[in-house]
Write a structure and sequence with these properties.
heterodimer; A: alpha+beta; Alpha-D-Glucose-1,6-Bisphosphate, Chain A, domain 4; seven-stranded antiparallel β-sheet; globular; B: Methylamine Dehydrogenase, Chain H; four-stranded antiparallel β-sheet; 29 strands
């Protein structure tokens, strides 16, 4: 009994360290695309927090609990069935940007822990530039991640996700 | 021929020496080096190589050295600031991040994010002589001006530990906000300031009692803190708001936000107390804040991914 209690305590002590710790170096992902369409039209495509299911081919489903209101939480489902929970942090009603963050990491979706990102839409003389930039820490809780969980692997996966989204926004807007 | 070469070599070395003044040393995560900024001109005057993905920094004015943590090469770079040279890389556990130097310059303290230890580096011999087990993911270190105490943040335990330096002993554990990271001690040594990343606030600890006396809300994901003793205020970098919170220490209120670059990290104050410097990781630059007006008056381009996590001012 005492032994079980002790084991339980040890487990409790270990769990936070395993779930919270992340890589020591934040990694940057930054992509943009120029679109031959007015900024209003492009913002109309991307602005709804859950419209990511319509413009990012890697996302099959999205549900949000409070639309575009601050702290609204969306759950997105990826092509492979994995889900990620993300929170809307800032939403600029002038139609230029929104910012969100990952609140429940899922290593089977992306091997990342904290992730914050901004999608911005800027007028560029009749054309539009959409920029998607974010930063994350790898989720592997130790100094020597296996190849599929390294900073580089996570960056590659997230870059592909951003790019696919941006390219499809262009397609939809033009 | 060889004689001429030697003379040229000597002249070359001579001209590379840093002249008197005040300098900011900025670790560049993406360039694996350190930018030395001359703060009279606000210009990078030299770049010195470090280990892989440098993060933390501690400067010793006594030894004219900078100690830089490289979490990805798992070592600490020792830099001769005057001669702009990398002296040595010293292996330091699995994930060195936070670092501080004792006021007498003889010891350097290094936090190992993965092994949950504080290493003690002998600055004369340049070897790690011992370690102190602490909490989970220790990440920030600050030493009191009297050299008797260090305070460290344990990010994954939501607490701060007070370590008695002569006795190498943890004498207090203080609960703070969620995911404490940057830690700074008042010039007077009377208060300790802690940035809590996930609760987006700053804990203020009274050193006499080792108790939190105030918690002040700031911006999103605060990272590091500079203390302006003459203005009686704190300046706090908010990673996800791309700005700096100014806290008035008389009222314990946030009184202003100053927009800087994206993902501001390291922050430190000029010894004249006239300017504060902020490294913005996403934008590869340092913003200069005038403490009279609390406005950004200059921006200095650095290497890629400027972090400068720690005390990075050098005065000669």
């Amino acid at each position: 009994m005492v032994k079980f209690f002790k084991l339980g305590l040890i487990a409790l002590l270990l769990i936070p360290a395993l779930t919270l710790a992340h890589g020591p170096s934040r990694v940057k992902v930054d992509h943009q695309i120029e679109i031959n369409a007015p900024a209003d039209k492009v913002w109309g495509i991307v602005s709804d927090f859950c419209s990511i299911k319509d413009w990012n081919p890697a996302v099959t489903e999205c549900e949000s609990d409070n639309g575009n209101q601050p702290d609204s939480v969306r759950v997105i489902t990826l092509e492979n069935g994995q889900k990620m929970k993300e929170k809307l942090v800032k939403f600029n009603t002038e139609g230029t940007m929104y910012q969100y963050m990952l609140i429940e990491p899922n290593v089977d979706a992306f091997p990342i822990n904290t992730h914050g990102a901004t999608i911005s839409v800027k007028d560029a003389g009749g054309k539009t530039v959409v920029e998607w930039k974010g930063a994350f820490y790898r989720s592997f809780p130790g100094p020597t991640p296996p190849p599929e969980l390294t900073d580089e692997a996570a960056e590659k996966a997230l870059s592909a996700f951003y790019k696919a989204g941006l390219e499809n926004i262009k397609k939809l807007a033009e | 021929m060889s004689c001429k070469f030697i003379i040229n070599g000597l002249l070359f070395v001579g001209s590379l020496q840093i002249q008197a003044g005040t300098f900011a040393l900025i670790t560049n995560q993406g360039s694996d080096n350190v930018s030395i900024i001359d703060l009279d001109q606000n210009q990078v005057i030299a770049t010195v190589p470090s280990g892989h993905r440098p993060a933390g920094i501690a400067v010793s004015n006594i030894d004219h050295r900078a100690y830089v943590t490289n979490p990805e090469s798992k070592d600490v770079s020792v830099i001769d600031i005057k001669n702009r040279l990398l002296i040595k890389n010293i292996q330091a556990g699995d994930g060195p991040v936070g670092i501080a130097v004792h006021p007498d310059g003889r010891e350097v303290y290094i936090a190992d994010w993965y092994k949950h230890l504080i290493y003690i580096l002998d600055a004369r011999e340049l070897v790690i002589t011992s370690s102190i087990p602490v909490g989970h993911s220790p990440s920030g270190i600050a030493v009191t001006p009297d050299g008797l105490s260090m305070y460290i943040t344990n990010r994954d335990d939501n607490n701060v530990m007070h370590i008695n330096i002569p006795e190498r002993k943890i004498v207090a554990t203080i609960m703070v906000g969620k995911a404490p990271f940057g830690i700074t001690i008042a010039d007077s040594g009377e208060q300790i300031y802690v940035a809590n990343v996930q609760s987006s606030d700053v804990s203020i600890i009274d050193r006499r009692t080792d108790a939190v006396i105030q918690t002040v809300a700031v911006g999103l994901f605060p990272y590091a803190i500079a203390h302006d003793q003459s203005g009686n205020r704190l300046l706090v970098t908010n990673q996800r708001d791309n700005d700096v919170s100014v806290i008035d220490l008389a009222s314990f209120m946030e009184i202003k936000r100053i927009t800087v670059g994206e993902y501001p990290e390291g922050i430190d104050i000029h010894p004249s107390k006239e300017f504060v410097y902020v490294a913005s990781w996403f934008d590869d630059k340092v913003s200069v804040i005038d403490l009279k007006t609390l406005e950004v008056i200059d921006e200095i381009e650095t290497g890629k991914g400027s972090r400068a996590y720690g005390k990075f001012m050098y005065t000669d």
